[in-house]
Amino acid sequence: MKKVGVAILGLGVVGGGTYKILKEHRELYQKSYKIDLTVEAVLERNRERAVSLGVEPEKIAANIQEICSNPDVDIVVEVMGGVEPAKSFVLDCLHAGKSVVTSNKELFCKYNHELEVAAKKNHCGLFYEASCVGGVPVIRALLDNLQGNKILSMMGIINGTTNYILTKMAAEGAAYEEVLKEAQKLGYAEANPSADVEGYDATYKLSILSSLAFHTKIPYTKIYREGITNIAVADIEYGKKFGYVLKLLAIGKNGDNGIEVRVHPSFIKSTHPLASVNDSYNAVYITGDCVEDVMLYGRGAGALPTGSAIVGDIIYCATHTNYQYSTFKNTEGPAPGTKFIDNFESAYYIRLNATDKPGVLAKVSSVFAKCKISVAQMSQQRDPACEDGTVPLIFITHVTHENNVNRAVKLINESDEIAKVAAVIRVVS
Ligand code: HSE
Prior knowledge:
By secondary structure, the chain is of the alpha/beta class. The protein folds into three domains: 2-131, NAD(P)-binding Rossmann-like Domain (Rossmann fold); 138-299, 2-Layer Sandwich (Dihydrodipicolinate Reductase, domain 2), CATH 3.30.360; 345-428, Alpha-Beta Plaits (2-Layer Sandwich). It has helices at residues 13-24, 26-33, 47-52, 64-68, 86-95, 105-121, 138-145, 160-172, 176-185, 194-197, 200-214, 233-241, 303-319, 360-370, 402-414; strands at 2-9, 35-43, 75-78, 99-102, 126-127, 151-157, 224-225, 244-255, 258-269, 281-288, 292-299, 345-354, 375-380, 391-397, 400-401, 419-427.
């Protein structure tokens, strides 16, 4: 039987889950794949935690060099998170001829070029299924199953923390701050939640997924990003009246005019399959030119779901020698000639707080007309009225360009007489 030794860098939630799966399923893998997978070393500062998980003390390495020079280690699992020291450790392992499996989206998104060059040079595997959407096998689907398609678009709920918060706000009518505190108490949101709630986490994941889907490097810096921190529960409620559900969507489109990539709160029809993805669940909705629509759904985080993705990569690595790398020419930046669309098209939900008097609507309409915005639906809400005596005027527009809406918002806000723009949310049509 082929013996394959694994080292785990970091025994936090995901590292601990991976360790447990490898221990408990050892016989299953022996029987099913004819490989004997054993954990030969761990790198974990908290020795007590390692021992409490069942790691033999002699397998706790003092430093990364001990792992790099350990001849029993074939595959190193990096689940530390963050860029440093994870990046240096991963490079050290690749240069020592160890294949690497990582769940680190920030590291992989920012440095996949450098890591892949090192992996190829040293004939090592580099796997990252767990970096995006936890246990949901979206990377393997793009690499191995959907590769015959031109991927036209992908739309995903790829951050569980924000999905949990938005689901709770919608269900309980509770304000963002209140739900965030509750999510932190329950351990869903980090003490410093900015990577999740400001959309960075989703941006890193979209960079990785869209690069694979569209066969060109999509740097995360090219992705338009807006988080959920300014979402008012009133807008979620008003949206419901129009038949919409609010989600933080990661959207990638590959059209004739170029590529557009964006992460922002979006209203989707309550009948759309993504609308029923609730709590901390994730899903990615992919449209290919042959397959049409495919939706992958599941747990985007957690010890065992993310551990499942990591162990899947370990088994793949242990049973293949001809490793797969990116689906694109892995350069530091996008392939020459890649065009990005910033002035993308969308429908919009626009809420104005307006004085309830004659002529206001006419003035707003004239700004919209000037900015080439056509209104599809409009409603004046009285319940609840705003504290300052204004009333919420809500417009759903037909599809228009982002720049048209930005211009209209500026013109409305600059005019004393009309109203103030209280919210702008893109609507997936
Ligand atoms: N922080 C992530 C989320 C989980 O909330 O989805 C790990 O990617």
